[in-house]
Amino acid sequence: MERKRILSIGFVLAVIFGLNSFCIAAPADSKELEMLRNTGEVFAEIAEKVTPAVVFVSVEQEVSQQQTMFSNPFEEFNDEFFKRFFDQRMPQNRQQPKQQKQIRKGQGSGFIITADGFILTNNHVVENADKITVKLSDERELVAKVIGTDPETDVAVIKVDANNLPFVELGDSDQLKVGQWVIAIGNPFGLSHTVTAGIVSAKGRSKIGLTEYEDFIQTDAAINFGNSGGPLLNIDGKVIGINSAIFSRSGGYMGIGFAIPVNMAKYVYQQLVADGKVTRGYLGLYGEDITADMAKLFGIENQKGVIVNKLLPDGPAAKGGVERGDVIIKKDGKAIEDWNIFRNEIARTAPGTKIELTVIREGKEKEIAVELEPRESKAVTAQAAEKQSKQIGITVQDLTDELAKQFGYEDKSGVIVTEVDPSSQAAEIGIAPGTLITEVNRQKVEDSKGFWELIGKAQDSVLLYVHQGEISRYVAIKFNK
Questions:
Q1: Which of 175, 242, 256, 411 has the most CB atoms lying inside 10 A of its own CB?
Q2: DSSP secondary structure of 203-230
Q3: Catalytic site residue 124?
Q4: Is residue 311's pLDDT more than 60?
């Protein structure tokens, strides 16, 4: 009897996963076949129900490509040594580079969440796109507009002008358990509405380096390039994640994919639709997980929590009485064991909320009340700045020692212009690649990050202080509407 049971399980796994090693278990009774039929029917019903709400997202971005009268004779060999050698030694007094407009195309997935056309996808699918086209399962193609993006979580909201659209129901990713079945639907490699199945391999994956706020669902459901932005569904057909990335050494699927928890996406969606930006709770401290060795040295062996490494001046934590070296063990009575989870919870808590932290200080527990303040997304500010920089018609990069020496700016700091749109006002007034920008609206610029932030604060025009060889001057540029 036990042998028959083992063989039967092998038969089920063989049919579901196609494992040839189980094919020795050919016999199967009617109950086993019925179970397989039921499992297949569940997947089929979910695919049939959800597929109409999954969309193919194609994007276009207009980019400028410089052409010069000189070229690298070893370019075709793609040899890093020769490229580096010639890149550094080609004559610097080249003719003004010609710039040609080119259209860069990309693709991904998304899913409709309201009947009037709101769609969730990844930020990296639509970021910097000049045109977004959404293709529905009924072959209709609609132009979409960006409602808002949040690069810090890689979530974006776009919308098409249509009504009575099929849409999916959002689930609760907090209820998800490791080992549960999940289904991914998307458009890998342009193959529209591909359905794959697997299980939840892990939850709360962080420190991957993909986004600022990470709390990924890990799954072995096959996810490939083009799946980004598509839904990850539970066995009830509800979205519990947005497929975002894969781990791969080969460029293709290797059994590990990551999805953004839908609860995180819900928070972002609500704020983007309401305000066009994401405002997060701000505590004003930096911390890390306390290790066993650290806990021992602090005299709190076997205690888990996060240790406060740094307090920001005038931040909510400092105002509330938190001190450097405190070990935070609870938030509102809930145990804290992981710095990343704690940080994500604070970010998802509305500014103005009062929270109670339980800390251990000098071996004793202490309750501290803190009121969270708003923290606007730095990434949103950077994106707004980048959009305005396109209106100015230039792109920049940090002034490195090598570039400073190359262009004669050794005694200066700022950002150097790398591209100029030939149809822009910047080109009309003589801004060219190699121009150094040291001030934006009378404020000193140290690097490209500071440049973006200052540009992002500008309204209709911007005043730049530029250097071109021996000539330094102020230039005013109006933003293109």
A1: 242
A2: EEE--SSS-SS--EEEE-S---TT-TT-
A3: yes
A4: yes
